[in-house]
Amino acid sequence: MNVARKGIILAGGSGTRLYPITQGISKQLLPIFDKPMIYYPISVLMLTGIREIAIITTPDDADQFRRSLGDGSHWGLSFTWIVQERPEGLAQAYLLAEDFLDGAASTMVLGDNIFFGHDLPIVLGNAAAKGQGGTVFGYRVVDPERYGVVDFDSDGRVKSIIEKPKVPPSKYAVTGLYFLDETASERAKSVTKSARGELEIVTLLNMYLADGQLDVAPMGRGFAWLDTGTHGSLLDAGNFVRTLSERQGQQVGCPEEIAFSKGWIDRDALRALGEKFAKNSYGQYILGLLKD
User: Looking at CB atoms within 10 Å, which of 34, 65, 197, 203 has the fewest?
Assistant: First the structure.
């Protein structure tokens, strides 16, 4: 019997690049226009059809997240909270979440990543439908040295993924969205710390690649991928969401809308959520969904 795919959001770290604004609050709870940052990765998992989500965060920030998000039931979801005592690399998430996954395939998204595109649900669904192995996404950037970078051979096949190379072999970075099968946690146990002292996600991905079980799918011009690790990128992300929202009159990353459209909550639940925020445009948008 197939076990339903589960979601992981890695929302740990100290956010030092965003000091002083993150000295008293988790980076993933900072606003991106009209919603907390973490709403956006939650919405990506929801668009994938995932309802069981583990949120990995720090001991200091766990209570903030619980107050902000509750248990997820108001969106038809179930949240499991996992505390990361020390950040030791992205691959550590699969060790921390092993009991939560309990043999399920997973989709992990970084808590400071935002994805947008008309065909995003299709792309997510295709990746989720894959059986064995994993899928990650390559996205062309001007500063690939900040990321894990895809190294292609002369025939355009993926040779390896290199973490933050000084001389990037291509312009294609791997985004913070990882679809991996049920072997991820077991494989992660074989990952050793890098020279940076971290359990690198690229080491785990290269294990899949060596077995011929990793797809690197391109995210082309029709998609936007934003991370929010600096003051400038935080502002850019907020302006991007505001422009789309106000130009089109449609929300970006709205869990209430996704939950309602998928039938995970009913009209009464949606109305209650909208009335909670009725004094602002976000709540009014939610209430407006009842009229559409």
Answer: 197
